[in-house]
Design a protein that fits this description.
Layout (H helix, E strand, L loop, with lengths): L1 H14 L18 E5 L3 H13 L3 E5 L2 H11 L3 E7 L7 H15 L6 E5 L8 H7 L3 E4 L4 H11 L1
Parallel strand pairs: 1-2, 1-3, 3-4, 4-5
Length: 156
């Protein structure tokens, strides 16, 4: 009985460790991927939410950059990816991404992909600014769901 309890204890301690979403450990219970999305345009937010739900993601939404960061702080241990618009009220996607990455560092969490959705040309966005904010991918609007699917397939 003691050996069983010790084995269970060591396994349960393993599950409490921080999870790297890019390095799937098949001994861990499989959790549904949780994606945090932000856009001040209700239509874009709804179609992105519906699409991600359809491909099996659990979705948390935010309507501005401040709400994005607040939701991330609340759910930071469960969020596996962030998709954000850039131009939003109260805080831009760049500023929210920077705060999210600072939070990840100070809390010792695993890095996650942060995807910026923008109507701007990619050439107008500074690579240095992306790196400074921890943004890992830039996608142009209108939203291309094939590309978003491929981004999540790469991670599976």
């Amino acid at each position: 009985n003691e050996r069983i309890n010790e084995k269970f204890k060591s396994k349960s301690e393993n599950y409490s460790e921080k999870v790297d979403p890019f390095n799937l450990d098949l001994d861990r219970p499989l959790l549904r991927e949780k994606v945090l999305i932000a856009d001040d345009d209700c239509f874009n937010l709804k179609i992105l939410q519906d699409f991600l739900s359809k491909i099996g993601k659990e979705v948390i939404t935010a309507r501005n950059g401040q709400e994005l960061f607040e939701n991330f702080k609340i759910h930071s241990h469960n969020i596996t990816a962030v998709i954000t618009d850039n131009y939003m009220p109260r805080k831009s996607g760049f500023d929210a991404a920077k705060q999210i990455n600072q939070h990840i560092q100070t809390q010792g969490l695993a890095k996650i992909p942060i995807i910026l959705l923008t109507g701007e040309e990619k050439s107008l966005i500074s690579k240095q600014a992306l790196e400074d904010c921890g943004i890992t991918e830039v996608l142009l609007k209108p939203i291309d769901f094939k590309i978003i699917s491929k981004l999540f397939e790469k991670r599976s």
